[in-house]
Amino acid sequence: MINRLKIERAIKNLTQDDLAKLIGVSRQTINSIETGRYVPSTILALKISKVFEKQVNQIFELEDSD
Amino acid sequence: MKTIIGTILVVAYFIILLRLFPAGKRTLDVFKLNPVLLPHWWKFLGLGWLVFVFGYSIAQGDFNPSTNTFLLSGMYFGLLQIAFSKEREEDEYSAMIRTKSMYVAFISVFFLVGIYSAYEMVENNSFSKNAFVWFMMLFNATLIVYLIYFYYSKYGIREKGDK
């Protein structure tokens, strides 16, 4: 799965720490999602989409290998 | 002195056990089961206890686990408190790496027991002579494997993203 989290964060001018605080997780969680190490749960993905005011599939996208 | 510390430890284990499994939150459904970990500040109690254990051993001048049983049992108590307390921000990511680290530690137990059993054949009665020492070393090693893997997964892997 690929994600546009870093791009969306840059558009909103948010640091990893800011985003982490907004959705109530640790900075390491945001970093791991951005680097593709960790796939978030549906709940977390929905919280992220709410912050960026976009649909989940505009932020997270399936790859051919998924 | 050792009798007093031993009695305190027995009581402390019961207190921690009741804290980890409070009445009313017990379930057999794995999807509803959320381990009730100790609060984050408890980690510092564990670290303080470890300092006390090593300080006590230095004061006694005895680092031989066969004669200084407090070294291994005290170390185990400290590591256990660190292992079963929450992170500052406990979220689904830390819950996931906690589960995976426990899985790795669980596997390591079986391999360590395998090594013990093989060593028993190399040197006869090496285990049965010092069963307590070997037993405590096994579980201390398991907790250390768990903690190293957990913190390495959380902080050690090189981060590519910005801050």
Verbal overview:
The complex is a heterodimer of chains A (66) and B (163). With 66 residues, chain A is mostly helical. Chain A has a single domain (2-61), classed as lambda repressor-like DNA-binding domains (434 Repressor (Amino-terminal Domain)), CATH 1.10.260. Chain A contains 5 helices and 2 strands. Chain A has helices spanning 5-11, 16-23, 27-34, 42-52, 56-59, and strands at residues 2-3, 60-61. A two-stranded antiparallel ribbon of chain A has the order 1-2. In chain A, helix 2 crosses helix 3. By secondary structure, chain B is mainly alpha-helical. Chain B folds into 2 domains: 1-86; 89-163, no CATH class. Chain B is built from 6 helices and no strands. The longest helix of chain B is centred in the middle third of the chain and has 31 residues, at 92-122. The interface between A and B is medium-sized, with 22 and 16 residues.
Order of helices and strands of chain A: EHHHHHE
User: Architecture of chain A, according to CATH?
Assistant: Orthogonal Bundle
CATH homologous superfamily caption of chain A: lambda repressor-like DNA-binding domains
> Structural class of the secondary structure composition of chain B?
mainly alpha
Mean pLDDT of chain B: 86
Count of separate DSSP helical elements of chain B: 6
Number of helices of chain A: 5
Reported for the largest beta sheet of chain A, the result is:
2 strands, antiparallel
Largest sheet of chain B: none
- Could you give the distance between the termini of chain A? 7 Å
Low-confidence parts of chain B, pLDDT < 50 over ≥5 residues? none
Largest interface: A-B, 22 and 16 residues
- N-to-C terminal Cα separation of chain B, in Å? 50 Å
| Low-confidence residue ranges of chain A | none
Name the strands of the widest sheet of chain A in spatial order: 1-2
User: Rough shape of chain A?
Assistant: globular
* Name of the CATH first level of chain A: Mainly Alpha
How many E-type strands of chain A? 2
Report the count of strand segments of chain B. Answer: 0
